[in-house]
Structures are given as structure tokens and as C-alpha cells.
Amino acid sequence: MDRNSQENPPQSQGSHNRRQWIEPALVLGIALLLRLLGIGWGLQNDLHFVSYHPDEPVTWGYAQQIEPAKLDFDPDFYNYPTLYLTILRVASDVVTAYAPTEDTPEGYWRYVSRCHLAGRFVSAAAGAGSAVVVFLLLRRRIGRFAAWLGAAAVAVAPGHLMHSRFQAVDVLAAFWVAVAIWLADRLEGEENPLRLAAWSGIAAGLAAGTKYTGVLVLAAIWLAVWLWVPRPMRWRSLLVSGGLCALAFLLTTPGVLVNWPAFRRDFLYEVSHSATGHGLVFVGYPSGFVTHLMNLAAGMGPLLAVLALASTALLLRERVRWFYPIALFSLLHYVLIGRAEVMFFRYTLPLFAPLAIAVGAWAGLRHNSPGRWGRAWAALALLAVGGVDGGGAAAGARVTGWMLLEDPRDQAAREIRSKHAEATVGLVSDPWFYTPALYPEVGLGPWAPLGARLEAMARAERPRVARYLPPDPKDRRDWDLRLLDEIRPDVVVFSSFEAYDAFRLKVPEAMAFYERLQRDYRLERMVGGPASRVHDLAYVRPEVFVWVRKTP
Predict the structure, then answer these.
(1) Structural domain ending residue among the three candidates 355, 381, 401
(2) Does 349 lie in the same domain as 280?
(3) CB atoms within 10 A of CB 46
(4) What is the mean pLDDT of residues 162-191?
(5) Cis bond leading into 530, ω under 30°?
(6) What is the pTM of this model?
(7) In angstroms, how far is the first alpha carbon of the chain from the final one?
(8) Is 387 in the same domain as 439?
């Protein structure tokens, strides 16, 4: 043995351990930096107060009902579990302490916007963390090429990038799922499996405590235990992982115990909502099993999604045993979201890490094998991640550019204010996140009292804003022809969020309105687009249509 190694073995081992974390740190830094670009999209500015993301104000509002200092973790809202809401409340308290704002309406909304930004930082860190987890698992199983490829597949995926910049539960839930899978994977060959089973169970509980569907990852943990934990420790590991999963869920969502009626009410609402649909948004779509394949193609890139699914099948065909738990979770989650009638893209986010592991693993195996075809597969995977088909990194760069540039709703509002300041602008539906910023409170959605929304609209000047209201405002309806017949606005504005499904399904009121609109108005400008036809991938780039009354 070398003399220096005899004299300084701890230092050599420590140096090796430090080097082992250099590459994961690079993955974390790069993935996080990518997610911080454009993270301020849609927040308060000189035109509007409310975030353009429809769920952020609601999620933040319920988070404020949690009071950690008083050990009160009951938001009286359980459409989601409580972990992310608690983190968001703590982040908001930090904003309060270190970024105080003036006591004015503008100051209040500036504070809310900063809180949204703090919540977005949590999502960005979780999204970057998912790439690191994929890297660590693949480096252990296959090697550095596979690890970098799999991590890149998550880091640059356009849908993952976009949703990592939102204050929402989905990316954090997907991160905990990835952590649970990684910890379970390490059970093979582990001398102390009970410890890893415990930590993987805790990670599964945190996933369930962020989004209920995260509990499915427990099945992957149990399969890993069954495959790799020796018989004397197997049942103990199963019980410990399951028990700690339940405990972590209860600790992060204590409303199950302290406010059972509210938990039962909202949980059953979510189950019912998933089974009945989301207005017109998914009416006429193929089943969720088909729609979510299209969501994956849009969120990853078509070629990368195809390669990921093919890699999954090939790994199973070759009986790569370590991949079985990952495949089991993917199958269970896909079946769950495929059976639902609500088919948002964000429901596929927990599949991104497993699919990235699959594409990285198979490409790594092919890269390590001799022969032209093996290297060709690895090269194709690299091209897919890079976006040779317009997906992958190319689409991620495009989405990032959109989130850095002025939003189409702001752009349309500035143009209308410049050209039609003295006009009356008609809206075909209640203003919300999709409406141009014609007045500051335009983004107040159905979560705000109707009276407050109508008062804000009535205060709008230069231009004036009109929405046809019958004698009883509760009887109002979208695409009401009386807007054109009785109010006769100078300008009519609507977005792709309002028009796409109504026109796709040929809703009679919308078709009659559009026919009259074409007769009496001309399309002056279409701002934004091309809008994604995947609903929650269109948030950052809707189309806004500006119609102007024809001169007699």
C-alpha cells in the first residue's frame, strides 16, 4: 500500500466523497438557474395587481389561514393537503419580516406578489431537486453518461420548467415522489435496510402530504422492499415504511384529525371533480389515457416522450429488476390520472422523473455496449433532449423566452389604451386571468365576491370596460348577444381561453355571437400565441383577440 494512503486514509476518503457531490451540485445549480429565469412572469406590475396564474391567489389565500406560531395548521381547505400551504405561509411570514410594504391597495398587492414569488422559489428548488435525484439514481445504476442525460431530460423539459416557476403544489409533490423512488432504489445491497425503508416511507408521506396522489409511490417502496430486503427484515421494513408514511402525512395534514368534516368535504369534492370534468375544458377529448400521452409529448417534446416510453418497455422486456418499482409507480399513477375526466398537464409531472430515469438508463446501457446501433440510440436520446424535433431544450428555451418577455395580456392592454383610450371595451365573459389588464383588479376571479369584481370593472376608465349584466347579475351568461345589441361597445376583446373550447364544441351562444361579431366588427389585432392547446401549458402565452367596430 502507498505510504501516503496509509498515513492519510481519512483525508483521501473525504476528498473522494467531496468529489462525488461536485456533479450533483452542478446539476442543481444549472437546473435551478434555468428555473429562476422568467420566475417573475405574470406578477403585479404597473398594469395589473393579480397574478396571471389562476390558482396562485387562491392557494396563497388559504395558506394565510395557517398560523404556525400558534401551532394552528388547519387552513379549512383540503382540496390539497397542507404541507405546501404551510411552507407557503412560512415563506409569506419571511416576506413580511424582511420586505415590508406600505399600507395601500397597491402595497397590499405588492406584498401578495412577493409572497407568490417566494412560493415560486420553493417550486423552482423542488424542480431542480428532481433533476438531482434522477442524476444520483442513474449514476449509481448505470454511469455518468446516463446520469447527465436523465438529469437533463428533467432540467430542460418545457412543461417541467414552466410549472417549476409557479406557486403551486405539483412540482413539490413530484419532487417528494422522486426522492422516495431514489431512497427505495438504494435498498438493494443496503446493510441497514430498515433505515432506508423508514426514510423512503417518510418521503412518500411528504408526497401524499403535498398532493394526495403521492401516496401511490408507497407501492414502489413496498415492491423494492420485497425484492431486495432479506426475509428476516422484510415485514418490519414494510410496516415501518407504511407506518412512517401515514405518520408523515398526518403530521403535514393534521386536518384529517382536527377538522375531519372540512377534510372529508374537500377531499370528496376533489374526487367528484376528477370524475365529472372541468366545465368545457376537456369535453370531447379522448380518454385520459390518450390525452396524457399528448400532454407528455407537449411537456417533454414528442421525440423525448416516445423514447422515454420505448425505454420503459425495453427495460421491462430485458427484465431490469431495479426498474420494476419505478415502473410500478408509473403504471399506477398513469392509470389513476387516465381514468379521470379532468386531464391537466400538471397531473403528469410525477411521471417526469421515472420517464427521465428510463430514457437515461436505456441510452446509457446502449452507450456502454459495443456496436453502431447502441451508440445511435444514445445519440438519438441526446438529440431529443436537445430538441431536434422542437421539444426538449429548444422548447424549454422558447417557453423561458415567453416568460421573460411582456405578457400578451399586458401587450394587448397597452395597445388598447394607446389606440382606444376613449372607447368602451366589451368583454364576453367575466374577467379573470385571461383578460387583458384594462384595469388593475382585472384578475379578480370567482374566488372574489361578485360585488367587488363589478365595482372594480365600473371604476375602469380610459378605456371603459363593459360586460352585459341582466337585471339579476346571477343570470349573466358568456357570449351574450345583448352585449353587441344593447351596449354596442367600440372594441370587443376575448382570449383563446374563452374562445377555444366554445368554438371547438360549437356552443350555440358562442357561434351566434361570433357570426354577429364578424358582421359588425373587424379583427384589428391578435396578440400572443401560438397558444398551446394544452390548457395549463397555455397560461404564459394565450392568444388575445381585439375586434373593433366597423365604421358605417
Answers:
(1) 401
(2) yes
(3) 9
(4) 96
(5) yes
(6) 0.94
(7) 97
(8) no
